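Sorry, explain these tokens?

***
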Amino acid sequence: MMSGYKTLEEMQSDSGLIKQQSVSLKVRNNDADSNANKSYTCRGMIYDDFCPKQQEFESAALIVEVIPAEPIKSPSDGFAYYGESHEFRCQFPDAGDGELYNVYWMFDDKRIMRSGDYYENGKRVIHGMIETFNNRSHDGLNIIESRYRILSVNSMAEGEYKCGISWLGGQYIKSQPGYLAVREISQPPSVTNVVLGATATLSCSATGDKAANITFHKMDWAGGNSTIISGATQKNNSAENPKPVITEGEVTLQADNSSSGYYFCNVTWGNRSLTSEPVYLNVFKTYGDGNDTWGVLGSVVRVECMSDGELRKDENRTSYRDEKDNVVFPDADVTWMYKGKNDQNFKPIDSNVKHFMESSWIGFDGFRRSGMIIGPIVSDYDLYEFQCVVNYDDKEAERHNFFGGTAFSKPTKLQISSIQSFESSPKEVIDGESFDLTCTALGKETPNFRITNDGRTLDTSRYTIKNSSIEHKNNVEHISKYEIQTWVATVLQGGQDFYCSVDFGPGTTELREKVKITTYYNCKKAKISVLGKQPIGQKINYEDDNGKRTAKVQCPDNTTDTRYIVYESDDVKRESVCQKDTGFYSPPYLAPCLESHAFTSGRFEQVWTLDSKYGAHCTDDNSLGQYSKQNMIKTLTTQNSQCGPTLSCLA
């Protein structure tokens, strides 16, 4: 039953069926189909106390136009580059009845805030804004348009976006989803550490609406330029029509000493490309220049192996840290090998070489150190070479991109520090003279030299070091030179030992070599005199021969009335010799010169001729030898410059 009210004038103006003009009405029907448009009328009758005659009426036709509950425009699939903006649009039909409505947006079926921001776990992951307009038209139909703009696209913004509208009366419309693919480098290369000689893999992944092209580059140390690394491979999942399309690339490197540096990947879609941040590749290795290791004969020597002990992230050797901010130390096992003088190849250290292995440890500088003590050193070790081997465990590869392997140190040869020579020039000297000592030592460092007589001190009562100096040759040969002044003869004790003591530093045995120096007496210091009273003009002449000194008496020149002869006996002679072995003259006195005067002076002179039995003869200095004749003849001497048979006899 339908009842309605009209004005009195309308009711009284017509006694028949009352009709009104038809009107149209647009309604939204979520269940209506496209053929649901129909006309609707209503009929009624009325009577009351004032109008006893029943009246009937029929309403005007009501044309109901059903609008399908679907969007005019849904968000479209699209792509955006990381860091750029992107906008979605959505349109709905407007019935024009003024009913209140609400437009909303969803990301992966979760509501976006009215401000346009989207939060997860209390953190904003998408920063956007929503704008809605209701003054648009489409094919003569009023529309409501909404726009959602993402201000800065990031990897979290990739996904499905929907828009929806609801009216106060309960009707609603939802759009179809539009997918946003973010063109970005989703997984750039990461900091990589690899053992020298091992292989390392650099990876780079990109997402987008279609497959990308990935290349790998190494930056030049000078900066600005880069070199493409050949051999890169890539794959993608586009054959399965996924959203997004993922492109994965990788390149394998054989690590050598030149591999350390910064690497990045370049991802290209058409004429646009993205470049990852450079990351450092650090080559793990051992350190040391392979120089000889020096030890002292009879002492022990320590060889050390130093290698990388922690992961690094840049050329400044900054520590790489994990997600808990801890420095990462990969496990490693350090062993030693050696090669003897008859070996062709290195072999594991064994009992042929006395050694003690130290445990390895990592210092504050991030280097792993492992030592081995060798010795006491014997001469056979001189040709031994040593090499350390560091085996790194690669279990950290998956978590921290560390590629393990085995690192070998440069071989080091064991050299023995020693005294090469200790020499004297000359080895025999005369008291008061000087001699030179030269001590040559072989070693990496300049040793401390000492010159002593007993290994401890120098006898300064006998010797004085006048000058000393040190020369160096080839960085390992050290020559110490000394000039020694002698003061006391040592010939009677068989000479004096001199020691060159060489000390190569704490913990080493002091090396010694000796040489014997004989100091002879200086006969120039020895004194000799003529026995008895010496005539005026008598002299002593000296002759030197290699330390031996001969003293000879020289009598005064003869005069017309005086002759001089040397009076010799068993104890005194014309000559006396000082030997450097003894330092004194023998005989200790020289024979005196005696005077011989003419007869007028009271001397008797008899001249006679001697026959050959007396053996008279001339000597080199034109004097006759000494002969006896019946105890009367004491001395025979010539009377003139010619040696002849005429002799004079002094009774």
Confidence is low (pLDDT under 50) at residues 1-24, 611-651.
